[in-house]
Amino acid sequence: MTNFCSSIQNALFGMGNPLLDISAVVDKDFLDKYGLKPNDQILAEEKHKALFDEIVKKSKVEYHAGGSTQNSVKIAQWMIQEPHKVATFFGCIGTDHFGEILKQKAAEAHVDAHYYEQSQEPTGTCAACITGDNRSLVANLAAANCYNKEKHLDVDSNWSLVEKARVYYIAGFFLTVSPESILKVAKHASDNNKIFGLNLSAPFISQFFKEPLMKVMPYVDIIFGNETTEDIAEIARRVQSLPKVNKNRQRIVVFTQGREDTVATVGDKVKMFPVLDIDQNDIVDTNGAGDAFVGGFLSELVQEKPLEECIRAGHYAANVIIRRVGCTFPEKPDFH
C-alpha cells in the first residue's frame, strides 16, 4: 500500500479560479434590493458590491471552497479518500479573511492547494442567495483574475509539483485568466505522454475565447463538455478530428447531458453510458453536477482505470452531489 500512496500523491494537478462560495438563506426583499432573479447565475457588477458584505451578516451563512476546477479536484480527493493530497491545485487569492477561509477549506478537503497570493484584488467569491428551492448565484472573480504565470507557475518549487503529476485538469473558465499558463502545462503533459483534460465549461468559452482554446486544443487528451451543446455526437466527432500533437494517445471526448446518457467518443466510435436513476424529488441542486462528474472521473483516471470505470465513478459522484445543497458531500463515498 505504501508504494501506491506515495506514487499517487500530487498525481492529479488542477489549475483554475478559486472562489469562496458563500451561501445564505435570504428573503425576496434582499433579491429585489440587488435586482436578482430567484434562480440565476451572473457575474457581479458594481451594484452588487455591497451584497457580499451584507450576506455574511445573515444568520445561517455557510462557506465552501468553490470554483469549478477546485470543486472537481476536491471531489476526486473525496472519492479516493487515502492518501491525502492526491490533488494539487493552483489559483489566485487575495491576502484577506476570505483567502484564509479558502486555505482552511482546501486543507480540510485534503487538497494540496498552493495559491498565488496578491493584495491588489480581494479573494474571489460566489454568493448563493437561497430562497426556498431557488438559488441565485452572483460571482465576483476579483483575485481569481490575477493569476500570474511568471510569479507563480514558473517558480521552481511550484513547477516541480506540475512535473510530479500524471493527470492534468483545467476548466475552460481559466482561459479567460491565463491562457499562457494553460499552454505551458498542456505542452508539458503532451511532451511527457501524460494526460491533459480540459472542460469546455460555459458556452461563452468556445464562442468568445476561440483563439486561446484552439491554441491549447492540439495538446488536449480528454475534452469534457455538457448539454449546452446541440448535436452532441456530431460535435464530439468534430472535436475528435482536430489536430493532436501526442499521437501516442487517442483523444477522448466526454459529454454529459443531465439525466440523458453520457456520450463518449474514442477514436471514431461513439458510446453511450446511461446515468444512475434518481427520483425527481430527491434532486436538491443540480448546480455542482458537472464538476462532480469530472471529479469522479478523475479519481479513477489517476488510478489508471479504464474509461468505463471513470464514467461510472463520474455518474456516482454527480448522483451524490445533486441530492445536496452546493458542491458538498457526505463524509465517505459508497462507490464499489
Automatic annotation (TrEMBL):
<dbReference type="GO" id="GO:0005524">
    <property type="term" value="F:ATP binding"/>
</dbReference>
<keyword id="KW-0660">Purine salvage</keyword>
<protein>
    <recommendedName>
        <fullName>Adenosine kinase</fullName>
        <ecNumber>2.7.1.20</ecNumber>
    </recommendedName>
</protein>
<dbReference type="GO" id="GO:0006169">
    <property type="term" value="P:adenosine salvage"/>
</dbReference>
<comment type="pathway">
    <text>Purine metabolism; AMP biosynthesis via salvage pathway; AMP from adenosine: step 1/1.</text>
</comment>
<keyword id="KW-0418">Kinase</keyword>
<dbReference type="GO" id="GO:0006144">
    <property type="term" value="P:purine nucleobase metabolic process"/>
</dbReference>
<feature type="active site" description="Proton acceptor">
    <location>
        <position position="291"/>
    </location>
</feature>
<keyword id="KW-0808">Transferase</keyword>
<dbReference type="InterPro" id="IPR029056">
    <property type="entry name" value="Ribokinase-like"/>
</dbReference>
<dbReference type="GO" id="GO:0004001">
    <property type="term" value="F:adenosine kinase activity"/>
</dbReference>
<dbReference type="GO" id="GO:0005829">
    <property type="term" value="C:cytosol"/>
</dbReference>
<dbReference type="InterPro" id="IPR002173">
    <property type="entry name" value="Carboh/pur_kinase_PfkB_CS"/>
</dbReference>
<dbReference type="InterPro" id="IPR001805">
    <property type="entry name" value="Adenokinase"/>
</dbReference>
<dbReference type="Pfam" id="PF00294">
    <property type="entry name" value="PfkB"/>
</dbReference>
<dbReference type="GO" id="GO:0044209">
    <property type="term" value="P:AMP salvage"/>
</dbReference>
<feature type="domain" description="Carbohydrate kinase PfkB">
    <location>
        <begin position="30"/>
        <end position="330"/>
    </location>
</feature>
<comment type="function">
    <text>ATP dependent phosphorylation of adenosine and other related nucleoside analogs to monophosphate derivatives.</text>
</comment>
<comment type="subunit">
    <text>Monomer.</text>
</comment>
<keyword id="KW-0547">Nucleotide-binding</keyword>
<comment type="similarity">
    <text>Belongs to the carbohydrate kinase PfkB family.</text>
</comment>
<keyword id="KW-0067">ATP-binding</keyword>
<keyword id="KW-0460">Magnesium</keyword>
<dbReference type="InterPro" id="IPR011611">
    <property type="entry name" value="PfkB_dom"/>
</dbReference>
<dbReference type="GO" id="GO:0005634">
    <property type="term" value="C:nucleus"/>
</dbReference>
<keyword id="KW-0539">Nucleus</keyword>
